[in-house]
Amino acid sequence: MFILYIYFTAIDFVISRSGEDPQNILRIFSEMKLEKFNLMIIDNLFDGVYFVDTERRITYWNKAAESITGYRAEEIIGQYCQSNILNHIDSDGRALCMLGCPLFATIIDGRQRADQVFLQHKEGHRIPVQINILPIIEDAVIVGAVEIFRISSFEINENRIIKKPLEAPLNDDFTTNTNREKTESYLTYRLHELKSFQRKFCVILLSIDDISKLSNAYGPDIGKKLLDRVYKSISYNIRPYDFFSYFHNEEFIGVFEIKKNYEATLLAEKIRILVAGSDIHHELGNLSATASLGVTAARENDTVGTIIQRAGSLLRQSKQKDNNSISSDA
User: Fold this and answer.
1) What is the DSSP letter of 163?
2) How far apart are CA 287 and CA 103, in angstroms?
3) Which pLDDT tens digit goes with each residue over 251-286?
4) Residue ranges making up the domain that contains 287
5) Buried b / exposed e across 33-56, counting CB within 10 Å, b at 16+?
6) Domain contains 300
7) In 3-state terms, what secondary structure has residue 174?
8) For the CA atoms of 4, 87, 127, 281, what is the dihedral angle to 10 degrees?
9) pTM of the shown model
10) Beta-carbon neighbour count of residue 301 at 10 Å?
């Protein structure tokens, strides 16, 4: 099935770019070695593609896979996917390589599978991807599997995933007020939408747990890198019309549209999982952190000040509990 897909994709690809007569293209295509031509086409697809054998050893890694994950082919080929290089997790934070690898299942039963997961970029942040897995069959025997993946979209209530084009990254100087001013401006707009059109939203304040201890132990650059990983993980997984920004010290703030108040807590739980699943590479091993969150649903009598104050009070409640917790009034 996969070879047929590539075969017809290859023909369309060449015809669309060459301006040649289709019959002439078909003649040229028939004269080429199909396997070599297939790999040339796969290497130029926008989707990431990789092959594994029956032991889940990676045997092929295309250019889009390099672009999406940050890993070059020479770093990946020969590695085993169960070594958790990409470290796929589902929306509940479960490690799929350990708790039900879809690639392994397809190698066993030959069934095609599709799912939406979060892979880990080489730099440590999480990227949402839609995966499609097919068996590789030769002479009626399964000899491996192929995974095709692309960055996809995220709707928190429908468990879909969206890539939001990143705006400005974290300010180089965390003491500047640029992000706070941007946040307050956006909140003013959302409060107007709430009062005029009843478009509900929530505010989530997020604080990285024990980041000062990590910075003291491993140096100030580690703390900044971790903040950047968290920012990227969440920014890649929100809708285009929502807002997420660095706010103050080790805190971030998110403003998210909701339909029902309880959705705010569900959203915070998914963000908590994303933070816990983000890490940075260090010579002593991968470093990760957890987050405490304060969650509040906006009210029509709110001002920018009252809603931030309420979210901050809830965040302080979370920080007084154990790490990695949520306090919500929604």
Assistant:
1) P
2) 27
3) 899 999 999 999 999 999 989 988 888 777 777 667
4) 165-328
5) eeeebbbebbbebebbbbbbeeeb
6) yes
7) coil
8) -130
9) 0.59
10) 8
